[in-house]
Design a protein that fits this description.
The protein is of the alpha/beta class and about 270 residues long. It folds into two domains: about 200 residues, 2-enoyl-CoA Hydratase, Chain A, domain 1; about 45 residues. Helices cover about 50% and strands about 15% of the residues. The radius of gyration is 20 Å and the shape is globular.
Length: about 270
């Protein structure tokens, strides 16, 4: 899988699992436009790969992601002054929305490993993950309205993750909270008290994923994403077709035979 040079990301592959590590320590891994474009390029390569089963998003230097880099907004304002007919703020904001959609629709399982700051855009990435594992003392929040701006691209994903009532409270009032509350809200799935426990939680998740059919997981994600967008009968028809195709395919045949023969399927890692 070729992704080219990344200046703000560290990539590490272990078997079929790809770790993408945000590496902008001077700003607690806040995302600038270059980092967004790098992530987009990596995610597109992952989506097209049949070698990667899961993507692990995490931050270096003790923080996940502190949101968007305010310097990008300053530069966008400078471009606006040079060309009043342009709209660099729209392009800057919408680029992150495209990234969120790409991560959200990724066929592979997306895991967020959270510590330190999980704010703004970092919070948004958690909302499009399949699995979120957090240190208990990680700090979560949506600080945007305190800056006089809306969490524009993030808001729909926050609502879908934790519901409209809680999303409105977090976005409009802007409280900061830690891992226990994130777990209660359904934002994250598992908590760890320290980094050793965080690693154990991640290893357990990866161990479980190693025993799951990668194509079955991809189809399952696609079916779940369709809930609410199609009539139920159509959705169930599509699901039955997907089931039939899967069980007649190589992965499904091997998985069911392995279960009957009480052995690991050949595609298990």
């Amino acid at each position: 899988m070729e992704v080219g040079q990344c200046d703000h990301l560290l990539l590490h592959r272990d078997r079929a699992f790809l770790s993408i590590i945000f590496d902008r320590p001077q700003v607690r891994n806040a995302m600038n436009l270059e980092m967004v474009h790098e992530l987009e390029r990596v995610m597109k390569a992952v989506a097209a790969s049949d070698e990667i089963r899961a993507v692990i998003l995490r931050g270096a230097h003790g923080h996940f992601c502190a949101g968007g880099d305010v310097k990008d907004m300053v530069q966008a304002n400078e471009r606006l002054q040079q060309d009043p007919n342009s709209d660099p703020f729209f392009e800057l904001n919408r680029a992150f929305g495209r990234l969120l959609c790409l991560v959200d629709q990724l066929p592979q399982t997306v895991i967020c490993v959270l510590e330190g700051s999980v704010l703004g855009g970092g919070f948004g990435l958690v909302c499009v993950s399949d699995v979120a594992i957090s240190l208990a003392n990680a700090k979560f929040g949506l600080p945007e309205t305190g800056l006089g701006i809306p969490p524009a691209q993030i808001a729909p994903f926050v609502v879908r993750r934790i519901g409209l009532t809680q999303a409105r409270y977090l976005a409009l009032v802007g409280p900061w909270f830690q891992g226990e509350e994130a777990l209660r809200l359904g934002l994250v799935h598992r908590l760890a008290e320290d980094r050793d426990a965080l690693k154990r939680e991640l290893d357990q998740v990866l161990g479980s994923l190693a025993m799951r059919g990668p194509q079955a997981n991809a189809v399952t994600k696609r079916l779940m994403h369709a809930v609410g967008s199609k009539p139920l009968d159509d959705l169930l028809d599509n699901a039955a077709h997907a089931f039939s195709e899967a069980i007649r395919g190589a992965e499904g045949r091997e998985g069911t035979q392995a279960f009957a023969q009480k052995r690991k399927p050949t595609w298990a890692l």
